[in-house]
Amino acid sequence: MKGTAMRRAFAALALILLFAAPLALPAAAQELSNEEIAAIKNAVFNDPEAPVMGNPQGDVVLVEFTDYNCGFCRKTMPEVRALLQSDPGIRMVMHEIPVFGEGSRYAAMAALAAREQGKYEVFHRALMSMRGKAEKASVLRVARKVGLDVPRLERDMQSPRITRQIEDSLALADDIGLVGTPSFIAGNRAQFGYMSREQLAELVAEARATR
């Protein structure tokens, strides 16, 4: 399933768990209490351990679930960057979910570790712009290129905090019925797949209007 159909499928699944009224939930989801649904929503939008791009104090939250070996994530990255540059009111929460193998996991660990050097966003963009597969050698090459202290990066990657963050994001993706990357959530809408700056802006505008 691709394109619009896939986006609709993800939106339906995510909205069932995150935003639907209790009476609209299917039998399996009805077992979730209001508190559990609220906790899932809070983890999506407000996880204090998730990296943030854009304006940390922004008036609207845009969430992305991403993988560095995802072709559409790479294609969407310039659109996301353009959106953040054009709209200083967006707080963008990133959930690293390495679903494309060990190289993806290594890249996600490195990206999260780059926060210790204040370089998550620049490293994230560089990894998304790289040619070829994200794996140890290529990730470390990009790290050097953006000025990261690589020995320190490798030490920081071993932190249990990073492993826990990745596992929490993967579990959250399961909780909301995520079907792939990139996936975006803002307000009461979820979208899967490549999105242009204009489409992302519409998603954000709708979220602002429904606050």
Protein model, in words:
The protein has 211 residues and is an alpha+beta fold. The chain has helices at residues 3-18, 34-46, 71-86, 102-113, 120-129, 136-145, 150-156, 160-175, 197-209; strands at 52-54, 60-66, 90-96, 183-186, 189-192. A 5-stranded mixed β-sheet has the order 1-3-2-4-5, sandwiched between helices. It is globular.
Question: Which descriptors apply to this entry?
Answer:
211 residues; disordered N terminus; alpha+beta; single chain; 5 strands; five-stranded mixed sheet; 9 helices
Backbone CA Rg: 17 Å
Label the structural class: alpha+beta
N-to-C span:
32 Å
Please provide the ordered H/E string of secondary-structure elements: HHEEHEHHHHHEEH
- Range of helix content: 40-55%
Instruction: Characterize the overall form.
Output: globular
Strand content: 5-15%
Number of helices: 9
The major pleated sheet works out as: 5 strands, mixed
Task: Name the poorly predicted regions.
Answer: 1-17, 19-28
* Average residue pLDDT: 87
Number of strands: 5
Strand order of the largest sheet: 1-3-2-4-5
Would you summarize the structure shown here?
The protein is 54% helix and 12% strand. It is an alpha+beta fold.
Give the topology, please.
Layout: H1 3-18, H2 34-46, E1 52-54, E2 60-66, H3 71-86, E3 90-96, H4 102-113, H5 120-129, H6 136-145, H7 150-156, H8 160-175, E4 183-186, E5 189-192, H9 197-209
Parallel strand pairs: 2-3
Antiparallel strand pairs: 1-3, 2-4, 4-5
